[in-house]
Amino acid sequence: MNAAGSAVQVQGLHKQFLDKESGRTIVALRDINLAIPAGTISAFVGPDGAGKTTLLRLLAGLLRVETGSIEVLGVDAKRDPQQIQDRISYMPQRFGLYEDLSVQENLDLYADLHGVGAQARVERYARLMEMTGLAKFTERPAGKLSGGMKQKLGLACTLVRSPELLLLDEPTVGVDPLSRVELWEIVEQLRHDEHLTVIISTAYLDEAERCAQVYVMHEGEVLAHGTPQALSDHARGRCFMARSPSKQPSRLLQSRLLDADDMVIDAVPQGGDVRFILNEQTQSDALCLRKILDGARVEEVSPRLEDGFMVLMRAKLHHDKGETDASLAAVSLSKSVTGADACGGAARDEVMIEVRDLVRKFGDFIAVNSTSFAVRRGEIFGLLGPNGAGKTTTFRMLCGLLPATSGFLQVAGVNLRTARANARRRIGYVSQKFSLYGNLSVKENLEFFGGAYGLRGQRLRQRIATVTEQFELHGLERTPSGHLPGGFKQRLAMAVGLLHEPDILFLDEPTSGTDPLARREFWRRITALANAGVTVIITTHFLDEAEYCDRIVIQDAGELKALGTPREVWVQAGHSATSPLNMEKAFIDIVNQARQSAQRNDKEVASA
Question: By the 8 A CB rule, do 185 and 174 touch?
C-alpha cells in the first residue's frame, strides 16, 4: 500500500451484543466512520465503555462485522478476517505472557505460532532485544519481570513477525513513567523505520498528543476527530492558570473552582498552580469568579489536547444528562463527605503512620531497605517509584498484608509488627484490580465486606445507605459488580473501603487505566475525605496526580530516593525552586540520578 493511501477505512459500522443474563441488547458502536492513513500513529480515547476495545477487535478481525464495512490493508474484514490477522499484530490489554517461561521461550513460542522462520528470527530477535532493552534478561522467567518489562516483552512477542499494522489496546496501563517513555520510543522507531501504521487506545491524553490524529469516543460514538491541535482548539481562549498567593495545596483552590460548576468546566493542579477552563458564558460572572480565586494571579494559557477533550466530554454529558453530569456528582459527594468531620476534632499534626528503618527481605533479596517516614492525619501521601522499586511491598506492609522483616511500623497508634489485626480495623484498602466479588450484586458486596469489618444490624444498614448515596450507586444495588463499567467498579470499591469509617485509606493505583473525566471525579472524592481528616496513602503512575499529594516519596531499588512536598522533590531533583514544576521530569531525573550513582559505585567496588 502506498503512503498516500489509507491503511484502515470504516464506514457506517454498528456493533451490538446480547447480554445473556438480562436479555438486553447492548449497543457497543454506533455509525462509526474513520480513515487511518498508512504510516501514521492514530489514537482512540474516551471513557470506560466508549467502545475502543470493541473497535480494535473488529479491526483485528477477531469480531464479526455485521452492519457497515471495514477494510484493513485493502482487505474486506467481513469476507476475509483471516487474511487481515495474517498481516497485522494486535496487543490486547492483558497480553498472554507465559509467566513460567523465560523471555526467550515466550519469544520462541509466539514465533512458532506465527510461523516465523529461523533466519528471520535471528534478525528480528536482535532488533527487538535492542529496542526493548531485554537482551540481558532472556533467561529470566516472565513472571519475575517488572510491570514495565512485561509490557515490553508483550510488545516484542507481538512484533516477532513484521506486521503492516499494529493495534495496541492501552499498552501503558500500570506502567511507570520511565517505561512509558521507552515503550513510546519503540513504537515511534518502528513507525519511522518500517513505515508501520499504528492504532492505539490510551487513557493518557499526553500520549494521544503524540499521534497524527485522535478519535474521541463516548458510548459507542465518535464525538470528534482530528489532529491533536484541532481538538485542542475546542478549548481555545478558555484556558487559564491560577497561582494562589497562599501556601495551601493547589487542590484546595481547584476544589473551589470545581464547586463553581456553572462557570468552570474543569480545574486540575498543574506545576504547583491550577489550570482551569471557563464556560463560554462566564464573562458576565467575572465578579463571582474573582471571589472564588481570592487573589490568585491568573493568566491565559494555550489549550492542550486534554483541555479540548474535557470541553467535548462536558458538553456531551450536559446534553445527555443535564444537571446530573459527573462534575456535579463529584461536587455533591464532596459536600456530603465534608459535612461529617471524620477528624473528630483531632489535631491535624497527629502522626497516623510512623515508619523507622523498615526492611523487607525475600530470601537474600532486599525488597525494601531501611525506609523511614511519618504521615499525619488528613494528609494525602504518595508512594511513587518505577515498576519493581519496592513501593508495592512497602504499601502492603503499611496495610498489614505483609509482615516486615525488621524495623518499626506503627499505624493508627498500633504497632503493626505485633498487633496487625487491631490496626486493620482502622484502615480501608482499595486495590488496583478492585477486590470485589463479580458474581455478587452491589448490595451483596457491601453486606459481605461490612460483615467482614464487624458491622452488624442497624449500623450496617445505615452505613450501606450512606455510602450508596455518597457514591451514587442507587439503582445499581441488584447489579452484579462484574457487570459494572470501570468507573462504577471504582466507586463501589471506594464505598466498600470506607464502609467502616477508617482513619486511614490505602489506594493502590486506583486510577490505572481510567480516563481524565473519571480521574477528576475520583480526586474530588479523595480531596473531600482528606479535608474531613482521613489520611490517604496512594500509589500511582500518573505523575500529574502527585500534585494532589501533600507529600510524596520516590523509591527505587528498595530505597527511599526523595521525600517531601512536590515542590521540595522538584528541588531535590536539581531544579530551581521558582521554575515551573513538572513531576514527571522530577521523577525521571531522581530515578536516573540514583541509578547512575549506583552504577558508579558498582564500578568503583569492582575496580577496588
Answer: no
Exposure on the CB side of residue 455, measured as CA atoms within 13 A: 20
351-362 and 406-411 strand pairing: antiparallel
Alpha carbon distance 65, 54 (integer Å): 11
Task: Give the tens place of pLDDT for each residue, 153-183.
Answer: 999 999 998 899 999 999 988 788 888 888 8
Cβ contacts of 55-60, under 8 Å, gap ≥ 24: 55/13, 55/29, 55/217, 56/90, 56/167, 56/169, 56/199, 56/201, 57/90, 58/13, 58/15, 58/29, 59/8, 59/10, 59/167, 59/199, 60/84, 60/85, 60/88, 60/90, 60/167
- Whole-number Å distance between alpha carbons of 130 and 139: 16
Confirm whether 231-324 and 351-599 share one CATH topology. no
* Residue 100, C-alpha cell as written in the block: 513460567
Q: In degrees rounded to 5, what are phi and psi of residue 354?
A: -130, 125
Angstrom distance (rounded) from CA 110 to CA 120 = 13
CA distances from 289 to 240, 270, 297, 328 (A): 12, 19, 12, 18
Start-end of H helices in 233-368: 250-259, 286-293, 305-321, 326-339
Domain residue spans in the chain? 6-226, 231-324, 351-599
For residue 293, the SS3 value is helix
| DSSP three-state, residue 373 | strand
pLDDT, one tens digit per residue, over 457-484 is: 999 999 999 999 888 888 889 888 887 7
Q: Which residues of 363-460 form beta strands (DSSP E)?
A: 365-376, 380-384, 406-411, 414-415, 427-430
CA distance 314 to 329: 13
Residues near 92 by beta carbon (within 8 Å), at least 6 away in sequence: 53, 169
**In Å, how far from its chain's centre is CA 556?**
20
Q: Which residues pair with 213 in a beta bridge?
A: 42
Nearest to 398 by CA among 408, 409, 382: 409
- The C-alpha cell that represents 166 in the structure block: 499494529
C-alpha cell recorded at residue 351 = 502522626
Per this entry, what is the length of the chain? 608
- Show Cβ contacts of residue 444 under 8 Å, excluding neighbours closer than 6 positions: 437
CA distance 111 to 115: 6
How would residue 225 be classed by pLDDT, with cut points 50, 70 and 90? very high
Cα–Cα distance between 257 and 524 in angstroms, integer?
12
Q: Which of 241, 212, 238, 207 is nearest to 225 (CA)?
A: 212
The label of the residue with cell 498552580 reads 273
Fold entry, domain 231-324: Alpha-Beta Plaits (3.30.70)
pLDDT digits (tens, 9 = 90+) for 59-94: 999 999 989 999 999 999 999 999 999 999 999 987
User: pLDDT value at position 147?
Assistant: 76
With contact defined as beta carbons under 8 Å apart, do 77 and 8 qualify? no
- What fold does the segment set 6-226 form as a domain? Rossmann fold (3.40.50)
Q: To which residue does cell 523511614 refer?
A: 372
- Beta strands in 58-191, from DSSP E residues, in sequence order: 67-72, 75-76, 88-91, 165-169
Domain 351-599: give its CATH code.
3.40.50.300
